[in-house]
Structures are given as C-alpha cells and as structure tokens.
Design brief:
Elements lengths: L3 H8 L20 E6 L9 E3 L2 E2 L1 E5 L2 E7 L7 E7 L6 E7 L6 E4 L11 H19 L18 E4 L4 E4 L2 E2 L6 E4 L5 E3 L4 E9 L3 E9 L2 E11 L6 E2 L4 E5 L9 E8 L2 E3 L18
Parallel strand pairs: 8-10
Antiparallel strand pairs: 1-5, 2-3, 2-6, 4-5, 6-7, 9-12, 10-11, 12-19, 13-18, 14-15, 14-17, 15-16, 16-18, 16-19, 19-20
C-alpha cells in the first residue's frame, strides 16, 4: 500500500508545483508515470521497475521516479521497488486502460514482412546491437526534458498503433512517424551522446542518442547519418537526413523514445505545436 506521506503527495499533486520540467504524465500502457518518493535524503534512492533501473530526479527536497510503462503492461496496480534489496519497499501506482487503433499497411518488399532465414540471422544480430543502445545506463544528475521536435514534418503514424502488414499482425508501432521529403535535416531533440548508429533490416539507417538515466531517443529510416558513435551532441545538432531505408512505404522519420528500456509515447516529451495539414489524429 502507498504510505501516508506518498498518498498525501499524490492527493495534493506535487507535480503542479515542480521547479523542474518533466514529461507529461500519462498512466496508461505506453505512457510515463511520475512517482513521488518518500525520501528526503541527500543521496538519490535506487528505484527499479520490472527489474530495470528507473530514472530518479530531484526537485527541492523531493525525489521523483520517472517510469516508462510498456505497451504490454497489465491494467491496474503496478509498483516500483525503492532502496537496496534488503531494505527495499514498494511504492504503488495505477495504470488505466488504453485501446490503440489498428493500422493496416501494405508493404511492396515482401521480405520486410516475411524475412528469409538469411534475413532472420541478420535481424537477430542487429537485435543485440539495438538492445545494447536501449539498455545502456548512464548516470546523470540533471536531465533535460525540454525537447524540441526533430523535424517539422506531418505526423503520419502515431505511437501504439496495432499494425497489420499485408494482412499479417505484427508488433505495435513503437514510435511516431513524421513525413518529410528525403534530405530534410533531422535535429537532436536534446543534448546527449550518440550511443550507436547502424543500418538495420527493419529500421534502416538509425541513430540512438543517450540523454541519461535510461532515456534514449532513436531516429530510423534515415537517408544519411551525420554523427558517429560516442559523439557529444547539443540540442538542435543535425544528426542526419530523412530517408526511406528499411521497412517503409515512403520517406519519413521514425522518432522513438525509450525510458527504462521501454518504448513510450514520444509526444509526452514534446512541446505543443500548431497542427500541420494531414497530421494523423487520435
């Protein structure tokens, strides 16, 4: 059960008075939950969710866990584990239901729907590289959540859509698609370190940016990559250009956000913008 101090914190909504900027909270599968922690010590508490380390940030004397919720999360009560193993405690929160629409897509390259054995060998090798970038943990005290849009393209594919390729169900959409002409410059949404680049079977030319404490952004289907692994980036730096490499139906940027190795809704990190003609809507 949530202890009294945490319950009072939730009731009085401490997020409304935060001095720091945090992602928008959305307690649904694929969302982000901000969990107040009953810990006023100077030392940052250790927090885990589903056996993965969780981002913890401080505002004044209050620590907060910033938790990415997987699309596969069960509806109802969830919890994070706070503290070392022998002295750990549970802090609970509730996940509400969210029904994502189904998207039907026709792919001309049949191998991108039904890979050959040779393709599967490549995909499995690439999976290890991708997981290495998304699972990487870099301790960082201050996290910049003031993201900018990587490009100004039309939103052509929203996060979480259940996808059916050529009549065959596949995994839900793990990011947001932004349509733009080939060659459009793609910008880093916030400062970070390039945690990996590569050309992948499904994702095409891809860049991963590590922003600290398990917050990683990914940029797929690029035409050109303009950065190198380990490179330090400032917000707005050009990381590549829009393309149509990998599994695509046209030129666009797949922009993904991973938090505690969970793919979450990118729009929770982005500022509001004016609607662009043709934007896909919820």
């Amino acid at each position: 059960m949530i202890n009294k101090l945490v319950l009072l914190a939730l009731i009085y909504n401490p997020l409304a008075a935060l001095a720091i900027n945090l992602p928008q909270q959305s307690a649904i599968p694929g969302g982000v939950v901000i969990v107040p922690l009953e810990n006023h010590n100077a030392v940052k508490p250790r927090v885990n969710y589903n056996n993965k380390p969780v981002m913890v940030v401080k505002d004044n004397e209050q620590w907060f866990a910033v938790v990415g919720i997987p699309l596969t999360a069960k509806i109802g009560q969830q919890s994070v584990t706070v503290g070392p193993d022998k002295q750990s405690r549970e802090v609970t929160f509730t996940i509400s239901d969210k029904q994502y629409p189904t998207q039907y897509i026709e792919i001309k390259d049949k191998r991108k729907v039904n890979p050959t054995n040779h393709d599967i060998t490549r995909i499995n090798a690439e999976r290890a590289q991708i997981d290495g970038a998304l699972e990487y943990w870099m301790d960082k005290a201050a996290i910049d959540f003031n993201f900018i849009w990587p490009i100004e393209g039309r939103v052509s594919g929203l996060f979480g859509r259940r996808r059916v390729f050529n009549g065959q169900p596949r995994k839900p959409h793990s990011g947001m698609d932004l349509a733009a002409p080939i060659g459009t410059e793609v910008h880093a949404p916030a400062a970070g370190i390039v945690r990996g680049t590569g050309n992948y079977f499904f994702n095409g030319n891809t860049v991963f940016i590590d922003h600290g404490q398990g917050l990683v952004t990914m940029f797929c289907h690029l035409n050109k990559i303009a950065v190198e692994d380990g490179q330090l980036l400032q917000q707005g730096a050009v990381i590549g250009t829009v393309g149509m490499t990998g599994r695509v139906t046209g030129p666009h940027l797949h922009f993904g956000v991973s938090l505690n190795d969970v793919r979450v809704e990118p729009r929770l990190f982005l500022p509001e913008r004016q609607t662009v003609a043709g934007d896909e809507k919820d």
